Amino acid sequence: MKFYFTYILQCSDNSYYTGMTNDLERRLVQHNEGIKKDCYTFKRRPVVLKWHLQCTNSTEAIKVEKQIKGWSRRKKTALIEENWQDLIEFSKNYTEYGHPDKRNPSSTGSD
Q1: CATH: 3.40.1440.10, 3.40.190.10, 3.20.20.70, 3.30.450.40. Which one for 4-71?
Q2: Residue 44 has what DSSP assignment?
Q3: Strand pairing partners for 18?
Q4: Terminal CA-to-CA distance of the chain, rounded, Å?
Q5: Over the stretch 40-72, which tens digit does the pLDDT of each residue have?
Q6: Per the count of CB atoms within 10 A, which of 54, 56, 76, 94 is most buried?
């Protein structure tokens, strides 16, 4: 069975790069060797693999890659750190719940 991988790299400038491949080890080496000068990671080497997901088909891996690419940095960090509570919090719709920085803190009972 052939596998595909969606992955997140941390670059030397502390930014994240999300990609997908059918050979994770080879792709990581390519990123660090700087095969393509126009690649996002070329000037941000070395890169470190921070997270990956193994998929059984390319369609699933591409779908996950596109989803993660649309996430905020803090949501990606929550995924990498397996901080499920923050991942849920950062997934909430701002229109429905308001921006996290502007929400009222929970009542502490000290009115």
Answers
A1: 3.40.1440.10
A2: G
A3: 8
A4: 61
A5: 999 999 999 999 999 999 999 999 999 999 999
A6: 76
